[in-house]
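User: Could you check the structure of this?
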Amino acid sequence: QVQLVESGGGLVQAGGSLRLSCAASGIIFSRNIMAWYRQAPGKQRELVARITSGGNTNYADTVKGRFTISRDDAKNTVYLQMNSLNPGDTAVYYCNTRNPYSGLVYWGKGTLVTVSS
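Assistant: Sure, the predicted structure tokens are below.
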């Protein structure tokens, strides 16, 4: 059974930082592309950052230079370091992965990040 469990969300003032974690189980973590998405109230879910099994990364334009995605294959965990947060970053952040063999997509339940002005 695949499980993705996010943690690290909370309330932070504009300009502050948070680090999100996503612990994965039930997958061969080292082979999977891992990603963070977010969904703000009234908006569609959007890709924030993605990291391949080889460590290549890509980011949404809105977070480039502020957010950093990383992974620790020994801990089956992916991280999202978020700096210089602004109220526009307020959203529920979801961890995501796709099985490279079956194509099945998995989601965590999300963690809420609220940035106050």
